[in-house]
Amino acid sequence: MKVRIGIDVGGTFTDAAAIDNETFELIGVVKTPTTHNSRQGVAEGIVQALQRIMEDCHINPDDVVFIAHGTTQATNALLEGDVAPVGIVTLGSGLQGAKSRSDTNISNIELAAGKFLESQNEYVDTSDKDSLGSRIVDAIRSLRERGTSSIVAAEAFSVDDPYHENLALEKCKEMNIPGTATNEISKLYGLKIRTRTAVVNASIMPKMLEAATMTETSIIEAGIKNPLMVMRCDGGVMTVDEVRNRPIMTILSGPAAGVAGALMYEKLTDGLFFEVGGTSTDISCVKDGKVMIQYAEVGGHKTYLSSLDVRTVGIGGGSMVQIKDGKAVNMGPRSAHIAGLDYEVYTDSDLIKNPRLMTVRPVPSDPEYAVIECDNGVRVTLTMAGAANIAGYVRPEDYSYGNVEAARKAWKPLADQMGCTVEEAAEKAMAFAAAKNAKVAEQLIKDYKMRPDQTVFVGGGGGAASVVPHLAKTMKHKYRIAGNAAVISTIGVALAMVRDMVERTVSSPSQEDILSIRREVEQKAIQSGAAPGTIEVHVEVDTQKNLLRAIAVGATEMRSKVLGNTKLTVDELLKICAENMDGNPGELSITAQNGVMYAVQSQRLEKKFLGLLKKKTTPLRLIDEEGVIRLQKSNALVSEVKIADWETKIEWYLEELTVFNDGGANLPNIYLVSGKRIIDLSGLQSKAQICALGNAELTGFGNDEKILIIATGRTEG
Question: Are residues 131 and 139 in contact, defined by beta-carbon separation less than 8 angstroms?
Fold first, then answer.
C-alpha cells in the first residue's frame, strides 16, 4: 500500500494522518502535544507525530509517496512579535533612486502590544558598476553591525530587471546571511508594498530556516525518500527549499489545510467551509471549485502575499453563554478552553448533582458567563456544544457528540431562570451564535456573488456539528459535515496540491504576454514539486488594475484515481443535478458529454419585472462520472466539438454573446472541457487571447479528440 502522510500543527496538538494513496481513505490518525517550548520548537512535535503514525500504522518508509506538514510557526511569530530585525539594502540611482529611498523606508510595524517588526536602511548607488558588488557588501555589513539578522534587497522595477537585487542576494549567500529580493516575493509594481512584503518574509527567515532544516533532516533519517512538502497559505504545498526562500507563504496555512481537505475529500463546488474549533470558526469561500484568495495584511498593512480569504468568528464548540440578570444574552467569545473550565456535555451525568447557576468573569474586564456548581464541588460551564447536543443537532457519529443527559441537567437552572424548557434555552443561546456567523457568511456570499440556493455549507473541525447544522437551518442552506471532520485539516495537508501564482502589471496584455506568464507559472509549479502532466493553469486579466495573473495547480505525482472511483448511471447523474437545482430529473437532459464529463441542462422561464417580462434561461451543471458537480451556471450554452474545430465554434459564441457598452466589448466567459480538465478562459479580453491560451492548453491532443465548450455571458452566474 502506498501512503500519503499529512501533519497539522495546531495550538494544542500536532495531528498526523495516513491516507491510502489509491483510495484516499483514512488509514490512521495520531495526536501529540505541540512542542511550542521545546528547544527545536514545533519541529520536534512534527517529528514525534511522524514517528508515531509510522509505528502505529506499520508504514514502511519506501511506501510513503507524499509527506507534507502545515505549521503555525510563521503565523505565531507574527502574532507574538517574535521576529528578527531586518536590514534593507535600497538600490538605485538619480531621481528614481531618491524616490526608492523613501518608498523602502518601512516604519516599524506593530505586530503585538509593544512588539514591533523593526527595519534599518542603507542606500547603494548603482551608477558605478565596477565597485557595486563591494559597496553592497559594505551596506550589508553596516546593517548587520546595527543589529539586523536578515537582509532585503529592494530596487524599483526589479520585476523587469532583477540583476541588482539578485547580485545583493548572491552577496548575502556568500556571507551566510538570510536574504530576500523583492522580485522573488512578487512580480507586481509597487516598490513600497513589495518591500514591506519582503521585510515580513525576511523577519521570520532565521527561525523558519532552523525549523525547516531540522524537520527535513528527520524525514531523511526516517528513510523517506520523497521530499518533504509544506502547506502554503493559499491551499497548495511547496518544497522545503521554497520555504527557506519564502517562509511568508506558510502564514495562515492552518485554515488553508482545512479548505484543501474540503476541496479534494469533499469535492466541494460552490460553498462556504466552516472549520470549527473550540474557541473560533474560520469561514472561507469556494466558488467553481476554487478557494477565494485575497492579499493578506500584517499589522494592518497591505502586502502582496496572496492567502485564503479566511474570516474568523469568535464562536466555537466551547463558546460559553453570557448571562445577565439570570438570562442568556449572548454566546462567546470566551470559551471553556480559555477559561480553564470543563464542558457540561463531556461530564459524567452522575456528577451533576443539585446544579446551581453561578457566574464567572474569566478576565476581570469580561462580562458574566454562566457556570454550574454542584454539591460535590463539580464545576462546569454551559457551552455551544452542550446546547447543540440538547437541541438534537449533533449526531452520535459526530466528533462533538457528548452526554446529553449531563447537558440537560446542567442547563436546567438557566432554563428555569428564563422561564422556558431546557430545549428552548439551548435554542435561544444558539441563536446568538448563529447571528454572529450569519453576518460573516452573508458578507462572503455577497462579496463573491455566490447564489445562496447553490451555496452549500460544509463543516470541518472537531466542533463542526455544534455550529454548522443550526446555522444552515437558520440561513436556509443545505449543509453537510465533512467525513473525518475532526482531522479534515490533517487530511487536507496529506491530499494537498501544489499551487503557484505569478502576477504581473501589464497594460493591454498581448498574446505573447499571456503565453509567457502561463509558461512561467507552470515552471514554478514544477519547481515546487508538481508533476508536469498534472498541472492546470488558469490565466486572469484584470483591465481595471492592469493586472495579469496566472495560477497553476498540480499533483505531486501522476495519478488519476480519485476517492471512490465509481462510475454512476445517467439516471443517477440526473438525480444529483435535480437535487442541486431543486428540480425534477425528468425536466433535465444531457446536452453534451465527452465520456467522463456530462453537461446537464434544463430550460426555465424567469420572471423579470412585475411578472410581465419573461426570459428563457438554460441552467447548466457540469457533472463528472462519479457524480461530482464540477461547474454550475445559471444560464449557459454548450457544444461538443472536435479540437480541430474549436476555434470556429468559439468565433460563433463570441458573435452571439459579446455585449458592447460604454466600457467597450464584454466577451463571454469560455470554458473548455478536455477529459476531466476544465480549462477556464473566462475574463480574457480578446479572441486572440482566448485562442492562444486555449491552444496552449490543448497542445499534444489529437485533432479528432472531442471536447466540450461551455459559454456564458460575462455577467452570468
Answer: no
What pLDDT shows up at residue 665?
80
Map residue 666 onto helix, strand or coil.
strand
Whole-number pLDDT of residue 562? 44
Task: Give the span between the Cα atoms of 328 and 419, in whole angstroms.
Answer: 11
Query: Model confidence over 162-194: pLDDT tens digits?
Result: 999 999 999 999 999 999 999 989 888 999 999
- 227 class by beta-carbon count within 10 Å (0-12 exposed, 13-18 middle, 19+ buried): middle
- Given a contact cutoff of 8 angstroms between Cβ atoms, the answer to whether 148 and 203 are in contact is no
Q: Classify 163 as helix, strand or coil.
A: helix
Angle (nearest 5°) at CA 403 between 401 and 409 = 135
pLDDT at 697: 86
Number of residues that this document lists for the chain: 717
Could you tell me which of 421, 350, 414, 419 has the C-alpha nearest to residue 382?
414
Write the secondary structure of 480-538 as one string of H (helix), E (strand) and C (coil). EECCCHHHHHHHHHHHCEEEEEEEEECCCCCHHHHHHHHHHHHHHHHHCCCCHHHCEEE
In three-state secondary structure terms, 624 is strand
Number of C-beta neighbours around residue 440 at 10 A: 17
Residue 30: strand pairing partners = 16
Do 303 and 296 form a contact (C-beta atoms < 8 A)?
yes
Q: Compute CA distances 658 → 449, 509, 542, 622, whole Å.
A: 21, 20, 18, 23
Q: How far apart are CA 714 and CA 716, in angstroms?
A: 6
Residues with pLDDT less than 70, the chain = 11-12, 556-565, 605-615, 663, 716-717
d(CA 117, CA 299): 9
The cell numbers describing 152, all together, are 532585503
Q: How many CB atoms lie within 10 A of CB 650?
A: 22
d(CA 185, CA 242): 11
Name every residue whose Cβ is closer than 8 Å to that of residue 63 and which is 6 or more positions away in sequence: 1, 2, 3
What is Dmax (Cα atoms) for the chain? 86
Query: Can you tell me which residue has the cell 515546487?
Result: 528
pLDDT digits (tens, 9 = 90+) for 406-435: 999 999 999 999 999 999 999 999 999 999
Strands 497-505 and 236-239: parallel
- Give the SS3 label for residue 207: helix
Residue 342: is it exposed, middle or buried by C-beta count within 10 angstroms (0-12/13-18/19+)?
middle
E strand segments, 532-675: 536-542, 547-554, 589-593, 597-601, 604-609, 613-617, 620-624, 629-633, 637-642, 659-661, 664-666, 669-674
Cα separation, 460 vs 262, in Å, equals 8
